[in-house]
Amino acid sequence: MLPLTDVQISDPFWSRYINLVRDVVVPYQWNALNDLIPDAEPSHAIKNFKIAAGLEEGDFYGMVFQDSDVAKWLEAAAYLLAAEPDPQLEQIADEVIDIIAKAQLEDGYLNTYYTLKEPGNRWTNLTECHELYCAGHMIEAAVAYYKATSKQKILDVVCKFADYLCKVFGPGPDQLKGYDGHQEIELALMKLYEVTGNKDYMKLCQFFLQERGQEPHFYEIEFNKRGGVTHFGEGMTKNKEYSQAHAPIHKQDKAVGHAVRFVYMCTGMAHLAAVTGDPELFASCERLWDNMEKKQMYITGGIGSQSHGEAFSTDYDLPNDTVYAETCASVGLVFFAQRMLLLQADRRYADALERSLYNTVIAGMSQDGKSFFYVNPLEVHPDACKANQNYSHVKTTRQGWFGCACCPPNVARLLASLSQYVYTVRERTVYANLYISGEAKVDLNGNQILIKQDSNYPWEGNIRFAIRAAQVTDFTLALRIPAWCENASVSVNGVEQSLDGLIVNGYAMLEGSWKTGDQIELVLPMEVARMKGHPLVRQTAGKVAIQRGPFVYCLEEIDNGSNLHQFSLPRDAKFVVEEDPALFHGVRTITTTGVKHNANDWGEELYKRDAVLEESKIKMKFIPYYAWANRGEGEMRVWVEDK
Question: Is the pTM above the cut of 0.85?
Answer without folding.
Answer: yes
